[in-house]
């Protein structure tokens, strides 16, 4: 059955993203911050981190201009531009507000979802095994997932990050309470991995990556299927996955019944422009 996504469901999914980004940023260090804005957060982990962004805004009213002023100052003090991920199903007034403040469109990402089936789909490519990865295997899991993440899926991207920063972000996100890690093996050799969180009825399927040598062998589909099975077991009703547009990851998800629910627009603003605006007022 098709899944219809209205602003209520979109906000529910965005709350899960807020928890994930905030949890990862808080683990990084003393210079990190997580600041509330509207029903979302502005997060900063370290210089050049993919966790440096504003998420979850656009629901429940438009943030005050003073809130944006404070957020932009906080990023500017750390020499970091402001990145905002804004769901297109949120309040249109927030997009208008950000445009008026000088934010520009940098790219998009797709949020796909499906209802959790009563019985998870069976995907068992030849030679592929997926299992939960225990705590004593964390460093192996990190090596596989962070190493695979360095080789992006083909498709448009507005983001580039240093290898060591990606590794630390993957480590921090995987260490959040409630996150479950998975390893995929091909003929007994670690080939890929992923993570997921199961909370408030949302199975957020995150962090999937396959080492280049083992791509196009069904690893991603097997990881998706295993996490869907756990979503069934944990009583979740919705499963979500986020991908870059027009990628193999999106195709794999759609083949397992995921549909495009909404798009996040990635908006950016230079903090040097923000500081100039403050000085000129």
Count of structural domains: 2
Secondary-structure element order, as H and E?
A: HEEEHEHEEHHEEEHEHEH
Largest sheet: 8 strands, mixed
Summarize the amount of helix as a percent range: 25-40%
Q: Could you say what the CATH topology of the largest domain is called?
A: Aminopeptidase
- SS strand fraction: 25-35%
* The CATH superfamily title of the largest domain: Gcn5-related N-acetyltransferase (GNAT)
- Record the strand order, biggest sheet: 4-11-5-10-9-8-7-6
In terms of quaternary structure, what is this?
A: single chain
* Arithmetic mean pLDDT: 92
List the helices and strands and how they pair.
Blueprint: H1 7-26, E1 33-37, E2 40-44, E3 53-55, H2 65-76, E4 82-87, H3 92-100, E5 104-115, E6 128-132, H4 138-149, H5 163-174, E7 179-186, E8 189-199, E9 202-210, H6 219-233, E10 238-243, H7 248-255, E11 259-269, H8 271-280
Parallel strand pairs: 9-10
Antiparallel strand pairs: 1-2, 2-3, 4-11, 5-10, 5-11, 6-7, 7-8, 8-9
């Amino acid at each position: 059955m098709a899944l219809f996504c209205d602003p209520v469901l979109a906000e529910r999914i965005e709350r899960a993203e807020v928890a994930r980004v905030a949890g990862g940023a808080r683990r990084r260090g003393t210079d990190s911050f997580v600041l509330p804005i509207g029903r979302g957060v502005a997060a900063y982990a370290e210089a050049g981190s993919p966790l440096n962004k504003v998420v979850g805004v656009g629901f429940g009213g438009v943030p005050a201009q003073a809130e944006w002023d404070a957020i932009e100052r906080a990023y500017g003090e750390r020499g970091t531009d402001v990145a905002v991920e804004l769901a297109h199903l949120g309040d249109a007034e927030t997009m208008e507000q950000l445009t008026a403040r000088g934010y520009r469109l940098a790219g998009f990402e797709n949020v796909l979802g499906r209802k959790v089936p009563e019985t998870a789909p069976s995907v068992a490519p030849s030679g592929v095994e997926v299992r939960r990865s225990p705590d004593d295997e964390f460093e192996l899991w990190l090596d596989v997932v962070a190493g695979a993440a360095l080789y992006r899926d083909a498709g448009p991207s507005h983001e580039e990050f240093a290898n060591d920063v990606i590794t630390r972000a993957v480590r921090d996100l995987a260490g959040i309470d409630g996150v479950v890690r998975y390893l995929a093996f091909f003929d007994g050799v670690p080939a890929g991995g992923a993570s997921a969180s199961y909370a408030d009825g949302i199975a957020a399927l995150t962090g999937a990556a396959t080492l280049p040598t083992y791509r196009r062998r069904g690893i991603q589909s097997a990881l998706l299927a295993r996490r869907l099975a756990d979503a069934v077991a944990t009583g979740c009703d919705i499963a979500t996955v986020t991908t870059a547009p027009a990628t193999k990851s999106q195709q794999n998800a759609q083949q397992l019944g995921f549909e495009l629910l909404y798009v996040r627009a990635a908006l950016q603003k230079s903090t040097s422009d923000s500081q100039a605006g403050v000085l000129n007022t």
